[in-house]
Amino acid sequence: MAQGSDNNDSSYTKSPSPGNRQGSSDDVRKVMRREKNRIAAQKSRMRQTQKADSLHLESENLEKENAALRKEVKRLTEEAKYLSTVLSNHEPLCTGLSGASTELLYGAHHGAFHQHISVPHYPL
C-alpha cells in the first residue's frame, strides 16, 4: 500500500527514522506558525473593533457638537436681527447722526452682520 494513500488505515504509523524526524519537525513548525498567525489575526480583529468603536464615539461627539453650534448660530442670527431692528427703530429718533456717521454704523456693506459695527454713544 502506498504511504499516506489511506488515512483510515490504523496499521499505518510513522516510523521513527531520521527522515520522519524532519517531517515531524516541519509539522511542529507548521502548527506553531498557524497558532502564531491565529493569535495575530485575533489581535488584528480586536484592534479593528476598537478602532470602529472609537470612530463611532467620535462621530457621536461631533454630531452633538455640530447640533450645539447650529443652535448657537440660530440664536446669534436671531439676536443680530433683533439688534438690527432696534437700531433701525432708534435711528430716526437719534438727532446726532449725520450721513457720514451712518457709514460708521453699517460700514461699506450695509446689512453685513459679520463686520464689526462701531456705534457712537450719544446722550439721550
UniProtKB/TrEMBL annotation:
UniProt-listed SMART domains: BRLZ
- For this chain's UniProt record, which GO biological process terms are given? cell differentiation
Family to which this protein belongs:
Belongs to the bZIP family.
Where in the cell does this protein reside?
Answer: Cytoplasm
- Locate the region Disordered: 1-60
Which stretches make up the BZIP domain?
A: 27-90
Keyword field: Activator, Cytoplasm, Differentiation, DNA-binding, Nucleus, Repressor, Transcription, Transcription regulation
Q: Pfam families of this UniProt entry?
A: bZIP_1
Full protein name: Basic leucine zipper transcriptional factor ATF-like
Any GO CC annotation of this UniProt entry: nucleus
Residues of the signal peptide: none
